[in-house]
UniProtKB/TrEMBL annotation:
Binding partners and assembly: Microtubule inner protein component of sperm flagellar doublet microtubules.
Main location: cytoplasm
Annotated gene: Tekt1
Role of this protein: Microtubule inner protein (MIP) part of the dynein-decorated doublet microtubules (DMTs) in cilia and flagellar axoneme. Forms filamentous polymers in the walls of ciliary and flagellar microtubules.
Cellular compartments annotated: Cytoplasm, Cytoskeleton, Cilium axoneme; Cytoplasm, Cytoskeleton, Flagellum axoneme
Record-linked Pfam families: Tektin
Source species: Haliaeetus albicilla
Name of the protein: Tektin
Transmembrane residue ranges: none
Superkingdom of origin organism: Eukaryota
Family per record: Belongs to the tektin family.
Native organism taxonomy: Eukaryota, Metazoa, Chordata, Craniata, Vertebrata
Amino acid sequence: MARLLQAPPKFLPTEWDIANKMQCASTESQKSRSERTIAESRRLLDEIEKSTQKTQSDVNKKIEQRQEEIKFWRQELDNKLEQIVHETEVLLTFKTRLEKSLESCKEPLVIAQKCLLNRQRRAGIDLVHDEVEQELVKEAEVLQGVIALLERTLEQTNEQIRLNRSTKYNLEMDLKDKFTASMIDDYCASLTNNTPDIRYADNAVKIEGNFVSPEDWIDFSNINVEKADKQRNNSLALRALIDSILSQTVNDMRKQCEMVNVAFRNRVMEVKDAKHKLETLLAVVMNETASQEKNIAALRKAIADKEGPVKVAQTRLEARNHRPNVELCYDTVQYRLISEVQEITKNIQRQDTLAQAETELKGLRRQQLSLEEEIQLKENTLYIDEVLCMQMRESLYINSF
């Protein structure tokens, strides 16, 4: 208890003075450190502010540059898109031309085949593999070749249109993405430190795996532009080819069509000429037949006219054979009667010309029948060539597409 009531120790005046001086020195030191910290903080804040402003200004410039890059590529892509769309529309008109040209080939081919089929109905010697048939076969071959070529070209055109549309789709997707990117960058460019809706984004600085490099970004659009140029050039070349094919095929078909028509006209003239000659021969044969018939009638009359004299002579001989005894004399009368019978019989026998004339008449009638049949064949051939075929071909016109 006595220790508890003991008074605290007393310090010396020097100790008190020292303690006061140390407190002042400590305070002054703390104040100096605080002032240095404040100055350093102000310098740091000023440096950070300048750095932040510089960085933000640099980012703004980068965004602006990026906007220009996107604008440039959007313009490039838009130009290529416009070109490929226009080229596809033009190519579609060429496709229509091909389809119409292909459709127009069907009727000439049907007509050529019908002509060949009709000409199979020619009969006899007129069923000949003549120039008309050769040209018709060639025409059918030309038309079939043209149809095959146009079908292949149409397939090629359809494929090119598909490639153009695929290129158009890629350009549109690229433009769509760049439009979205441009809108985002426009939004970013509009943001300031005082914009109301700015906020913290925890994972904003995290680079995802689907980011691409600027080089890849440029290459992607550049590839789309190059593909668009390539397909457009291919389309231009195809259109030039289509023009050439349509022009050449029309010329080939028209040339062959004219060759067939000329062959038909020449053949009809030949057949008409042959028919005219046959009709002339028929008239000659018919005249000769009439003359031969008159000749046979005259021969028959002549033979009939000799029946009386021979009967008289033979009756006289028969009667004189009944003379009695020595009166049965071989006198001049008997001699002359016998000579008369022999002479008349010989003359009648000499008229075997009748049989020959009848044979000739049969030959003339057979020739007449043959000529009539041949003329009928020519008439049938003329009907087939001039009426069925040539009139059918009059409706044939090969259009240019």
